[in-house]
Amino acid sequence: MENARCFANRFTDYKGALLVGQGVETVVPTVNAFIDTILKNVPLGPSDCDGGLYDGPAGAAYMLYHVSECAFFTYYRDAYLKIAKQIIDVSMAYVDGEKDKNMKAAFLLGGAGIYAVAAMVYKALGLADFVKPLTKFRSLWEVCSPINFLECGSDELFVGRAGYLCGALVLKQKLGIEILSKDQIQAICGAVVESGKQYALRKRKPSPLMYSYYGTEYLGAAHGLSSVLQMLLCYQDMLTEGDRDLVWQSVDFLMNQEQNCNWPAELGSVIERENELIHWCHGAPGVAYLFAKAYLINKKPQYLDTCIRSGELVWQKGLLKKGPGICHGVSGSAYVFLLLYRLTGNSKYIYRAQRFAEFLFTEEFKVGSCSITSVYSLFEGLSGTVCFLVDLLQPDQSEFPLFSVFV
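and the corresponding structure tokens:
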């Protein structure tokens, strides 16, 4: 029976040699052609800036920044950064006028992410002005530190505190400076832990920390437990000993929710094979990053084993029909292989990522994948694919966009 969600993977697995024809000489022109297409189609009016980094034009600005940081694109660096600045300036003017201060604090869907990318682009261009968007980003910690600042759920990645912490982490990684003070980080992390404790107690959940978003107890990276815990691990030195214990207990609780190398979208669900979600947003391809972080911190083999099992599932079922993007598309699946390469040094994973890249250009994919609305966006469309293709040229530095594990 044909799988409604993924194409069959007919590729032979790694036999000791990487693919030829996927080097700089082919990838650079391909990426430049994609960028030309994206820039011809990205809407740039002040009314088109909705969607933040996720599926708004600001995501294309981040993509241009990412490409400009890669040594193989030095020739195009200045041109790409200048266009990135034009795009991000329009987006920044839009969020400056945002009346809802909570939306300003959102990382992937609102202002915090746009200020973060503006700071990175400005700094890359050598502009002292990078301090202005950085200051705007910093000021948002006050918005998201009250425990219930959002009715829909204050802690997840797209609009909540985990996203704000993620933004600070990305900025620290890219700019080389600590963005928030120790007190600010402790206040936000403390609110995340307290919120999770209160929810778990109130709802009598088996995990020491639990969260919901619009009433659903998600487990995956997009809105769920895994990315919240991932961010707490990134800042675990800022937590009290008791809170740190609760985080690690919750990590192990989530590890035990695995069903056949995958995780259900929400707590307590049973995965039905025909409806199985294997996406970065819901399922193993996103949850793997939490266990990668856990493994990098304490080197316990069970965390790496969990990542490896996730990778095996993605090799089998990760050629997704939902397009080329990183949220629930083929590039998002392939990033798991680049993650595993960085964790293990095993070239098999570069080979697998190369095969997934190759698949993006097949007739089968072009004809059989679903049409998507945000064709040029960072998370659903081609801007994310560009980031993946660039990272395939530099696997030792590769990382899922705006989702830092190696900091």
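(Above: one complete record from the training split.) The first helix runs from residue 24 to 41.
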